[in-house]
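Notes from the pairing session

We agreed to fold both candidates in a single pass and log them together. This is the raw record for the first candidate, unedited. Please don't reformat it; downstream parsing expects exactly this layout.

Candidate A
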Amino acid sequence: MTRPGCAMVVFFGAASISALMARDLRAQTQAGDSPDARRIHAAVEKLTQDDRPGTRAALYTALSSGVLLVPTSVRPAAKGRITVFEFGPIRPPPFELVRLGGDRKGLAAFTEVAFLEQFRPEGAQIVYMQGRQLFLMALDMQADLIAVNPGSPVSGVLERFELQRIAEGTVPIGQNRTELTRDVPMRVRPLQASSPGKLRRLLVTAFRKMPEIRTAYLFEVSMNGAPYRLAVGVELEKESGSLNAKMSELMEGLGREGIDIRVFPFDAHFEELAAEVEAEFEPFYSRAP
């Protein structure tokens, strides 16, 4: 899997389920006949056979749009039983992070009741959640990962950086490159980091070796309601087929430094973002004439 911090954005081109839907989903997942489960399982199988950007994107899309069973921290209503936790505006479902592999904490989510029963034979109270809403919640809870169907033949782990990608509405299209699956709202704000000096120095050193970049801006961006993260926007002097390779190398280097950042080229795809950033922030880098 791609390491966190190695993602570069390049463009070519209700948190809860209703009671009626929950009853339908309960019957389908109990019988192992959920359409969402079938789509997710098929995507997992294809990814296992051929791990490439296209198959990984298909899995991300299936997980994001699908509905998953998520155990709450409430004791089961009866030993060995899987029941739906009844919640409302004044009774939100309680969740807690659990240890899932070493010292890392996260949430478990399931596509079928049978897989959950294998994992929790003592029973559980669950809620049905759309994948993207679950991933946003996990990010807010500072989860390290989400384990999907742990202990089952159709299992996998979504690392935190993957949760961020899915929540943002992006999918992989190549090494260190992602693409939006649709138009998504973006919000920007100034850097919240207390000491961005090291990052600025690393970027300036790299950009001086890239004649394609005219100016660059540092800021934080929230995409599709996902948590804010570091971003750099670059105005291009000219198009270059080698720029993607240079940026991928830069992102890998930043990833090794523990820096997770998005790169936005200010081209026709990002006119609105570019206008907002240029109006609110000063560039930290400008190529000498």
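Candidate B (folded immediately after A)
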Amino acid sequence: MDEAGKTWVNGLKQFEANCRKRSPLPSRDDLSPLEAQQCRILGGSWLAWLKHHAPGMLEERAVLHKAMHVDPEPVVVFLSIAPGLIAAHKIFGDRAPDGIVCLKEDQFKRWPRKSPDRSMSWHAYCMQTFRKVTDHELGEHYRAQSIPEDCEAWLHIDETL
């Protein structure tokens, strides 16, 4: 990685540390039943991503390095909600490996404004999160047949770029 990339990554890691100081993650024991289930699902997805997707992504980056001059070993920014970051903490312990940064999506959105990497030369990201599905998205027919009135539908989002 070139010096500009190292500076960018070091700044991002410092930003991550500051975010964690300002907004510490809750204990897994303090999660609601819904959040605990999300934590389990996101942790499994994150492990599967590391095992099955990350190696191929690095192979693609090696090709892009030659064609587009991006770093072949970018820092991977893991974006998630609190249960996903708690799962990542359980996987990595107190310190993620040097090539991984874990942030909430809204936190990471604040970082590029300060120091953009628009061409994604130094980073790639994996976003694992959930979002509640609206009644409109479900449609009345599907909701009436599949989901009890007192329940909610959630969409698991898994995105890599």
